[in-house]
Specification:
By secondary structure, the chain is α+β, with helices and mostly antiparallel strands. It is 31% helix and 28% strand. It is built from 28 helices and 32 strands. The strands form six sheets. Strands 28-3-27-26-32-31-29-30 form an eight-stranded mixed β-sheet. Strands 15-14-16-17-12-13-18 form a seven-stranded mixed β-sheet. A six-stranded antiparallel β-barrel has the order 5-6-7-10-9-8. Strand 29 and strand 30 (698-704) form a beta hairpin. Helix 4 runs antiparallel to helix 5 (99-116) and helix 16 runs parallel beside helix 20. It is globular. Keywords: Coiled coil.
Length: 797
């Protein structure tokens, strides 16, 4: 979405940016704009009003002599025209040197140089940059409570002491309008006007229409020899509301309805349906009772199953509540930006048939002086894990629901709204474990007595306390799943294996094998339930036909669905009875027939408001593939901001420093092409050196961790980066996406098809092109803790 058509409005708002009542003025001047346009306008205004550290040095870029100009202790070298541009730009920003001032001076200089060479700006064709990637807004669901129609009818405008002026409407909604009048209208912008909708007053006999309706002038712009006025309705009652609503409904198939908000939201929802099935993070929802926080819900998805499984003990009871206990949660919520509280480490220990969990935050390890012992010993265990927690306070003033179509109910049912209102924070639990870094952590070990780790043993959780809800995807099962373990044998041709069920439903199950077997998928397999056979009566539970839908975890986790033909399936009938007779005893893992669909959708919307990383999307092209979009959340994030520095357009990012040198093809596109949608995401790591240049820009030197060689080279790179500037590390996830989930945005697409068919088709084509998705995640703090020498330097004993 572009703001090209709103440059006049941006120019009008610039001088008001630093005013204390700017928010109120902004609301007035943009009252008739769509919510999505207002969102982008605010993003652009925030960008150009931010403090700038870039130096303008034209000494080798101009034919004129330059002089030194000092602003806020920054030395610039400008020729006379550039100095004049600077003097004109500074008052717009209260004499502060902002990004808007920088861009205005540089743009004026470039235009002057082009004119000297008799080159029109349009003729200047910049070198195509394949790494210039647009952003798509995720997690911000614009809702317009009323339809606005691009509808032209004759009008007459009256104001006391001014002759009547004739014109036409450009668009019309129940609460406002945009009209076109002659330039010399002589209207006073500060006084209300009376607007007669002439063609409506001929058709509908309503007093308000016959005598005129009172409107407030919000804004006047001159365009193409006419005055364009944005109006906000002041007068008229419910009868007039009904008449205008009736007109919009009756004419909306003949005139153009403004569908911009719906398109922006449908685009965001469409792309998030590519991203969410692969999501490896586990969203958690915090409730506070008597000032004590606890985890109330977790949101399950296909990609975060490894985290869920990790915390289950020998009785399938999640030990997550004591990993993120009330004490740790309190510290995390108080110190959301403190790495020491938000970085946690864990391992497990088997003893006498029981699974014991040990865990510690970085803050706890430093406080107890057990950093060497815990990191060094725990990293030798196969169960070693490193976790990062990202916390976000929930703003309950925002709607929970993605109500995108005019007239939609903006709220869920009362019960769902009540459930969502009880949460104070969302947490995202992110597994940062990297097997390649295990040896780096083992360098911490100082051969101390491991009995010192007993203080980090978690107390055992005996019963389930966290409620589980599954993300609603079109491919998910339409029946409830229950935790249940029983022995199963599986056969496909001459391949045989034995495993234990993780969960069951009447028509499907998830099976975990003792050893991975390379079964063909998707394909038919035969299952037998030897332990259930004794309780099955006459039912035959051997050699039952099932479809192997997909495998995960290197072929050890299988998802199966019963193959039901013309005759009853003994497995389905038996499992149906088993579930029905034991419903009170079995733990339900997902909702039944969509009972929790609203809640799951609301929970998803809450955590999408603030993304821990930056999602990206790969789409196929005629020749190969390209990065199509990166996902931008509703709050500024450091990663996308870093790549926005070389782009002067809203929602456009230059990823050349990260993706150049064939990284995009070799590390992202080629691996994604080799993957299947059923595969888990994998990742690679990038080390970044950030150096602030003399002229204010930031130079990024991105190097693959794998190219740096051994541990010593990695440490040297980090140390060197900190000497010349700053160090940053990114984890780049990558995964293959499935076909787009069009059913999720079906209503939005139908609405867009009616009013802008070509735009609906374009959106569908965009979503069908996507073949992969991933995420850029900041892992700087975790990378630095891997190397004892770095921590020793920053924290000497």
């Amino acid at each position: 979405m572009s703001l090209d058509n709103h440059s006049a409005l941006i120019e009008q708002l610039k001088p008001l940016l630093m005013e204390p009542d700017f928010q109120e003025i902004f609301e007035q001047l943009t009252a008739d704009e769509s919510n999505s346009t207002r969102f982008l306008l605010k993003m652009e205004l925030n960008r150009i009003s931010s403090q700038c550290t870039r130096i303008i040095d034209l000494r080798d870029k101009t034919e004129l002599p330059c002089e030194e100009v000092v602003i806020a202790n920054q030395r610039h070298f400008l020729d006379e025209p550039a100095k004049e541009s600077l003097i004109n730009a500074l008052p717009l920003y209260r004499n502060k040197y902002t990004l808007g001032v920088y861009e205005q001076v540089v743009k004026a200089h470039k235009l002057r140089r082009l004119k000297l060479r008799n080159i029109e700006p349009e003729e200047l064709i910049s070198e195509e940059n394949p790494y210039l990637v647009p952003g798509v807004v995720l997690g911000s669901y614009f809702n317009r409570c009323e339809e606005r129609m691009n509808y032209s009818i004759r009008i007459a405008v009256n104001q006391p002491g001014v002759p009547e002026v004739n014109g036409v409407t450009l668009d019309l909604s129940v609460g406002g309008a945009r009209i076109k009048l002659p330039l010399k209208h002589h209207l006073d912008q500060d006084k209300p006007i009376k607007l007669k909708l002439l063609e409506l007053s001929e058709e509908f006999f309503v007093d308000d229409l016959q005598h005129g309706v009172d409107y407030q002038i919000v804004d006047i712009q001159n365009k193409d020899g006419n005055a364009i006025l944005r109006l906000k309705r002041l007068g008229g009652g419910e009868t007039l509301d009904k008449v205008i609503s009736k007109v919009i409904r009756s004419f909306k198939f003949r005139y153009k309805v403004d569908v911009n908000d719906v398109i922006v939201t449908a685009t965001g929802l469409g792309y998030e349906r590519h991203y969410l099935p692969l999501l490896t993070h586990l969203p958690l929802y915090i409730s506070v009772k008597d000032d004590i926080p606890h985890i109330a819900y977790e949101l399950l998805g296909r990609g975060n199953q490894p985290i869920q499984h990790y915390f289950q003990d020998e009785n399938e009871v999640s030990q997550l509540p004591n990993f993120l206990n009330s004490r740790r949660l309190t510290q995390i919520l108080k110190n959301t930006l403190d790495v020491d509280h938000c970085l946690l480490f864990s391992f497990t220990h088997h003893a006498q048939g029981k699974l014991h969990f040990y865990s510690a935050s970085l803050a706890e390890l430093k406080a107890t002086k057990n950093l060497h012992l815990f990191l060094g010993f725990a990293s030798t265990k196969a169960s070693w894990r490193v976790f990062k927690v990202v916390a976000q306070t929930i703003d309950h003033s925002k709607n929970y629901k993605t109500s995108t179509l005019p007239g939609d109910d903006a709220r869920y049912s009362a019960l769902t709204e009540q459930q969502l209102a009880q949460f104070s924070h969302t947490l995202q639990l992110i597994d940062l474990t990297n097997e390649d870094a295990r040896k780096d952590y083992q360098g911490w070990f100082n051969k101390a007595d491991v009995n010192g780790l007993k203080i980090f043993a978690q107390a055992k959780v005996k019963k389930h306390s966290i409620k589980k809800v599954s993300m609603p995807f079109s491919e998910r099962r339409h029946e409830a799943r229950f935790a249940f373990k029983t022995l199963v044998t599986i056969q496909q041709g001459d391949k045989k294996a034995t495993g234990v069920t993780h969960d069951i439903s009447s028509r499907g199950l998830q099976l975990i094998l003792e050893e991975s077997v390379d079964f063909t998928e998707p394909a038919q397999v035969m299952l037998s339930f030897p332990r259930l056979q004794a309780a099955s009566g006459k039912a035959n539970l051997a050699h039952l036909p099932y479809q192997l839908i997909r495998s995960r975890m290197n072929g050890q986790t299988l998802h199966l669905s019963a193959l039901i033909g013309h005759t009853p399936h003994d497995g389905v009938e038996f499992l149906n009875k088993l579930i029905a007779h034991n419903k009170q005893k079995l733990e339900q893992l997902s909702d039944n027939e969509g009972q929790l669909k609203e809640l799951a959708d609301g929970l998803k919307n809450l955590f999408m408001r603030q993304l821990p990383g930056v999602p990206y999307f790969i789409e196929k092209t005629v020749k190969s593939a390209q990065m199509a979009y990166i996902g931008i959340g509703t709050t500024t994030d450091e990663i996308s901001h870093l790549f926005a520095q070389d782009s002067d357009q809203v929602l456009q990012y230059n990823l050349r420093p990260l993706l150049d040198n064939n990284v995009l093809k070799q590390q992202i596109i080629d691996p994604i092409k080799a993957m299947k949608p059923s595969h888990d995401m994998d990742f690679f790591e990038v080390f970044i050196q950030l150096v602030r240049q003399a002229r204010g820009s930031v130079q990024l030197k991105c190097v693959l961790k794998s190219e740096l060689g051994g541990k010593d080279n990695q440490v040297k790179f980090i140390q060197q980066s900190k000497k010349v500037g700053r160090f940053m590390a990114l984890r780049v996830y990558r995964g293959a996406t499935d076909k787009p989930d069009m059913s999720y945005i079906r209503r939005e697409l139908e609405y867009i098809h009616i009013h802008a068919n070509h735009r609906a088709k374009h959106l569908e084509e965009q979503l069908w092109k996507v073949i992969g998705s991933g995420e850029l995640l900041d892992i700087t703090a975790e990378v630095e803790i891997r190397y004892p020498s770095l921590v020793m330097i920053s924290q000497p004993k």
